[in-house]
Amino acid sequence: MKRKQERSLVEQPQIEKLIQNVEKVVVGKRAEIELSLIAILSGGHVLLEDVPGVGKTMMVRAIAKSLGAEFKRIQFTPDLLPSDVTGVSIFNQKTLEFQFRPGPVMANIVLADEINRTSPKTQAALLEALEEGSVTTDGETRELDRPFFVMATQNPIEYGGTYPLPEAQLDRFLFKFRIGYPTKSEEMEVLTRVEKQHPIDTLESVMTLQELLLLQEQVKEVYVQDNVKEYIISITSATRQHHAVYLGASPRASIAIMKAAQAYALLQNRDYVIPDDVKYLAPFALEHRVLLSSDAKLSETTPSKVVKEVIEQVRVPAGNEQAQ
């Protein structure tokens, strides 16, 4: 007996209202907004690689304001120290005690701007926060408030004075994608909206953090059938066996795809994952996790081409509905 497709775990208008609120600021980028929300709902983080001025900062600010969340921005520079990110203990001469001053990473939503412009030591300061949801300073581990979401950005054009993110750090990001330039009509709409006042200044919250936490818990209840799990594993395993790949996707990538697919199903008003969810989300979760061989790089093969080829070759399991 099959479960009815119309059954849902959450009222769809709640999430739709959040998306529409962000669209008041970010024009024509619904898919990218949805991907960001999928990452938040599944407890993941996003790496945006795009040129300046396409709305990366505005999108994350709009999401933060729509949720009424505490928002902090970290501008990564070559001289930034790990303590500038995580926080530092300062001696208080009045109390004769050290007092911890939290860094900007200790917020609900954090924009890590131009993350590849800082040293590997400072980049590594984010690793614990991204994976464990905590930071360790002066030998003490401090839990970060939930929800916690990091959107990091990097410029794909200017590589002078940058430090490419190592594979271990890239693997901590659920998705990597681009926003891209708007169409001519979308850019006209942008000009019209900001002509007198920027819409970000008047944006109001449409969802509380408590409601978001409840949605995150509901995402965990979205059912994933065994054949869908096998489909995910088949895709990630195929990246490890591809002739052009030096280092394929790890088991963490399989977990990332599954959790993202659960969140995407929730956005689609379903309480179960279908193979099409996996097929749609896999490129965003895999391309930054695939390291090409030297020969493949010389032949102008890209991670995008490899992942696309893998997805086309792996057989999609039959049956798009979940059995009860």
UniProtKB/TrEMBL annotation:
<keyword id="KW-0067">ATP-binding</keyword>
<dbReference type="InterPro" id="IPR050764">
    <property type="entry name" value="CbbQ/NirQ/NorQ/GpvN"/>
</dbReference>
<dbReference type="Pfam" id="PF17863">
    <property type="entry name" value="AAA_lid_2"/>
</dbReference>
<dbReference type="InterPro" id="IPR003593">
    <property type="entry name" value="AAA+_ATPase"/>
</dbReference>
<feature type="domain" description="AAA+ ATPase">
    <location>
        <begin position="42"/>
        <end position="183"/>
    </location>
</feature>
<protein>
    <submittedName>
        <fullName>MoxR family ATPase</fullName>
    </submittedName>
</protein>
<dbReference type="Pfam" id="PF07726">
    <property type="entry name" value="AAA_3"/>
</dbReference>
<comment type="similarity">
    <text>Belongs to the MoxR family.</text>
</comment>
<dbReference type="GO" id="GO:0005524">
    <property type="term" value="F:ATP binding"/>
</dbReference>
<keyword id="KW-0547">Nucleotide-binding</keyword>
<dbReference type="GO" id="GO:0016887">
    <property type="term" value="F:ATP hydrolysis activity"/>
</dbReference>
<dbReference type="InterPro" id="IPR027417">
    <property type="entry name" value="P-loop_NTPase"/>
</dbReference>
<dbReference type="InterPro" id="IPR011703">
    <property type="entry name" value="ATPase_AAA-3"/>
</dbReference>
<dbReference type="InterPro" id="IPR041628">
    <property type="entry name" value="ChlI/MoxR_AAA_lid"/>
</dbReference>
